Amino acid sequence: MKYLRFARPLYWLPTISSSISGWLSTNPTFDWSLVVLLVVMVGPGLSGFAEAFNGLQDEDFDRESKQYKFFGISLAGGTGQLSKREILRNNAAWFILVLTGTSILISLYFGACTTLLCLTALSVGYLYSSSTVKLNRSEWFRQALLFLGYGPIAFFIGVSTGISDWNYLSHDQVFFSVMSGVMVVSVGVTSDVLDYTDNIKSGKRNIVTLYGPKMSLTVSTIISWLVLAITFAYSEAKVNLHQREVVLLLIVFLMFVRTKLLMNFQNPPVIIRSHLISIGIEILFPFVMVFNA
Questions:
Q1: Would you give the end-to-end CA distance of the chain in angstroms?
Q2: Would you say 152 and 145 are in contact if contact means Cβ atoms under 8 Å apart?
Q3: Which of 126, 135, 180, 130 is nearest to 157 (CA)?
Q4: Are 9 and 44 in contact (CB under 8 A)?
Q5: Contact at 8 Å (CB) between 253 and 284?
Q6: Higher per-residue pLDDT: 292 or 178
Q7: pLDDT, tens digit, for every residue of 95-127?
Q8: pLDDT score for 70
């Protein structure tokens, strides 16, 4: 259980939903055995690797930062398990290797395209967190990696598991994968708001420390509403949305609640609630875009 917490399973869910959305865009009917393999590959495999590797690289930061948790699952500030010696560093490294191997082995079952995308996703996770990569000191580079990982890469991993001929790849799939990545990056800024004080103390640079919580949240809210509006307008012209009205209305409701909560962004409990809502939006958003390509 402690290793599961270390891999922060709550953050697997947006990647899983994006991949399932991609899979459904080429497979309108469920094959549960394949879906389970896909979920394991992108959940504990790829996302688990990214979260655990980030925790390993951020050990010093996590030692000093305040942990925000939801039912024992870390939301921000890291898990603190390495600094508290709950998990030994060598054991964490072996655990990360197991997650890496799991994702690669399952991707081999799906074929060469899925394996290539899986290796790309692992590389994105490494580049985002590795202390040896100088480029990730640029927050714009890190945001671009988040966009790729949660959006196009996750979506097309799902597509690759259900498509036999890439000539049938559509512009709609590319558009929706991009919108998914932009949505995750825009609403996910609440995580950095929770870490704002600790990031300032440690000298860690990100969007929130560069532009401040108020400006970051304002821009985040505007972009997320624009993404939802653009996606809805595009989908209405391309896709019959009547079967997805409930999902769409739920996202709109969550967006309104999040927008209202963020007006009181100085209050940590309010930010925690808004961050949980942000994760809910990230999970639901790809399913607005499911269509039969």
A1: 40
A2: no
A3: 180
A4: yes
A5: no
A6: 178
A7: 899 999 999 999 999 989 999 999 999 999 999
A8: 66
